[in-house]
Automatic annotation (TrEMBL):
Any Pfam family the entry gives: CsbD
Domain CsbD-like: 6-57
Residue ranges of the region described as Disordered: 1-63
Biological source species: Rhizobium quercicola
The protein's name in its UniProt record: CsbD family protein
Length: 63
C-alpha cells in the first residue's frame, strides 16, 4: 500500500472502531467494544505506517 492509502484506510478504521465502541457501550456489548478498540488501534497503526513511508520517501528524495 502507498502512504496515502495507508492514511485513508487508517482513518476509516479509526472512525469505524470509534463507532463500534460507542454502539458497544450503548448496548452494553463488551465484545463489540473490544472489536471497536482493536479496529481503532489497527487504524492508528495504518496511519503511522503511512506517515513513516512519507518520512522515508522524503529522506530518499533528498539523497
Amino acid at each position: 500500500m502507498g502512504s496515502i492509502s495507508d492514511k485513508v484506510s487508517g482513518a476509516a478504521n479509526q472512525a469505524a472502531g470509534n463507532v463500534k465502541q460507542a454502539v458497544g457501550k450503548m448496548t452494553d456489548n463488551d465484545r463489540l467494544q473490544a472489536e471497536g478498540k482493536a479496529q481503532e488501534v489497527k487504524g492508528e497503526v495504518q496511519q503511522a505506517s503511512g506517515k513513516a513511508k512519507d518520512t522515508v520517501k522524503g529522506a530518499v528524495d533528498r539523497l
